[in-house]
Amino acid sequence: MDKPSPNRRHLKRIPVWIPRDQTVIYFVTLCCDRRRQVFTIGSRVRILLESLLGMTKSTHWKVPQICIMPDHVHLMMMPMEERKQSLSRVVQRWKSSSQQRFTRAGLTGRVWQREFFDHLLRSDESLTEKWRYIEMNPVRAGLAKTPAEYPYLGSPDEILQRLI
Fold first, then answer.
1. Which residues are CB-contacts of 122 (< 8 A; sequence separation ≥ 6)?
2. Other C-beta atoms within 10 Å of 137: how many?
3. CA-CA distance, 53 to 49, in Å (whole number)?
4. What is the pTM of this model?
5. Has residue 148 got a pLDDT over 70?
6. What DSSP string describes 56-85?
């Protein structure tokens, strides 16, 4: 069986109509370009999180949980108040902002793959089950024995506090 290309194209997003008063939670995965090991240094994780927090404030989206792996990022995202910007637009802004910050910090080359994966959690799906999958990622990768041992897992604010 052929190995999938790290730069393979994903399907474009199909617009989904969701009632404005319905709580919406997305499970999102962003991969580094060519699965490059970008997030192995605390200073880069800090840049990523500071960029994320800036984006959430300006777009009114919330990120309750995140897992930053060396070559990809898993997170839960939810719009707050009115959904003025689409998930695609918000993620694009975050990727662009973080790329600029990484470049200013001396990291050369492209950080992110062009596309990203998202999954809208439906009413029959459990947020707890999805988060359990995410938090076991560092354990499956051999980066920690338990999720509690992995420093780049939790809320963005909690992770930033550990980096101080």
1. none
2. 19
3. 6
4. 0.85
5. yes
6. HHHHTEEEEEEEE-SSEEEEEEEE-SS--S
E strands present in the chain? 26-31, 61-68, 72-79, 117-120, 153-154
Structure tokens at 158: 């909690």
For residue 82, name the pLDDT band (cuts at 50, 70, 90): low
Question: Does domain 26-163 fall into CATH 2.60.40.1220?
Answer: no
Q: Distance between CA 86 and CA 98 in Å, rounded?
A: 18
Measured at the CA of 152, the angle between CA 147 and CA 157, to 5 degrees, comes to 115
Integer distance in angstroms from the first to the last C-alpha of the chain?
45
Burial class (CB in 10 A: 0-12, 13-18, 19+), 64: middle
* Strand, coil or helix: 41: coil
Rounded to whole angstroms, the Cα distance separating 6 from 119 reads: 20
User: Other CB atoms closer than 10 Å to residue 97's CB: what's the count?
Assistant: 18
- Helices 42-59 & 87-104, crossing angle to 10 degrees? 140
Angle at Cα 117 formed by Cα 137 and Cα 100, nearest 5°?
Answer: 90
Question: Which structure tokens are listed for 91?
Answer: 């993620």
